[in-house]
Design goal:
The chain is built from 6 helices and 12 strands. The protein is α/β, with parallel strands linked by helices. The strands form 3 sheets. Strands 1, 4, 10, 11 and 12 form a 5-stranded mixed sheet that branches. Strands 3-2-7-8-9 form a 5-stranded mixed sheet, with no helix packed on it. Strand 7 (about 215-220) and strand 8 (about 225-230) form a beta hairpin. The longest helix has 21 residues, at about 25-45. The chain is globular.
Length: about 290
Amino acid sequence: MRELNQMTITDATKESFSNRTNERFAFLIDKLIEHLHDYAREVNLTHAEWMTALNFLYDCGKISTPERHEFILLSDVLGLSALVDMINTQGGGTPGSNLGPFYLDNAPKFALGKHLADGREGVVILVNGQVRNTMGQPIKGAVIDTWQADGEGMYPIQDPRQDKWDLRGIFQTDDQGRYYYTTVLPKSYTVPYDGPVGKLLTAADRHAWRTKHLHFILRAPGMRAITTEVFFKGDEYLDSDAVFGVRKSLIAEAKRVPKDANLEFDLEHRPDARVDFDFVLSPARA
């Protein structure tokens, strides 16, 4: 230890973690140490910069709650979330996209056809499609967990006066693998500026706009679960989404529904427009 210097401390640190039986953990921690040390050497990191970074992470922890995960938001704006989604999209399934900081587990369960936006103003849209496997076969009973911002670009969870479970719901596909429900067309919004990640974006003079979207998590027995988003054709932020979530195959179109149109679904609320989007789930790894 007495002979440590800038170049030997990396191997010494890795060696201190050498008593490990989990090979994957060993690989991950070794690479983390290597890249952290290489970064510090490359930029000649000062004590002030080091402490600023640690305080930034501390502030992310302070503002985080079970209902707002600032570290996920940080991962999002740094492009790490999108990269992990890309790495883990495989097997011909629908591409993954950002979870975001406002996901809540155990959303209420609803029957197909439910309207998720009772009492909220905005364009009412029918969201529907089919969930299939990679062979094109419909998946009956697939679980669809969805959440979104409202017509003003606000998640109910951001406003303590609102019910945090609004605009959220869990559905199961029917015998034909179909899902369908109505809601309001979400609006583009900025990621939160009131925390440390917002300060980071301000310091970088970087815009924080998210293109409007719907969030989804899909699960089915024997299939890989996916977390993804559906975006809307024509939105001004499609090519500059603040968290790099957009994929070409995840862009849908909200098409106007004529007042006299016959809809094939039993719905609680008649829509002004419809969004048709099919999901594909790939087999789970053995």
